[in-house]
């Protein structure tokens, strides 16, 4: 762990272990969004993203990006997500609305990339326009080399990001699998209608 201009606070062994797990997952190409992304006071989005991308580049044996070089990369991502450039100066999720937090997570995914992205209710707290922007960004990140697992309760997200598979879970188990028509079936008939889905 690097500290930038100040000493990092001491962490309890369990905190160090959890940090190591998250770092290992990220460096392995796993990205996870959260229903309620946490605030990181005192760390700007720009610094957070620069440190994260350079950690990934170091792992891949690539040279670190300098601040100006990174700014040209990240500013394009910010513009593509229709976010204000000042988002980079704000502390990570501090004082953000629910929609801003979700967009910020998609910005992180856009900058860092991932082999597997787990997106937990990225549609919650988004108005119609923000949902379309986020869906457009996620669709732009999909390639044959990566996968996205989305958790949602609403058809509207699936209308914008077409899934290859839909899995219905109950009590921690997958009880039904199908294509996007399964989600449409549930949207029309509710979860009770699963039994009649062929």
Automatic annotation (TrEMBL):
<keyword id="KW-0067">ATP-binding</keyword>
<keyword id="KW-0547">Nucleotide-binding</keyword>
<dbReference type="InterPro" id="IPR010230">
    <property type="entry name" value="FeS-cluster_ATPase_SufC"/>
</dbReference>
<dbReference type="InterPro" id="IPR027417">
    <property type="entry name" value="P-loop_NTPase"/>
</dbReference>
<protein>
    <recommendedName>
        <fullName>ABC transporter domain-containing protein</fullName>
    </recommendedName>
</protein>
<dbReference type="GO" id="GO:0005524">
    <property type="term" value="F:ATP binding"/>
</dbReference>
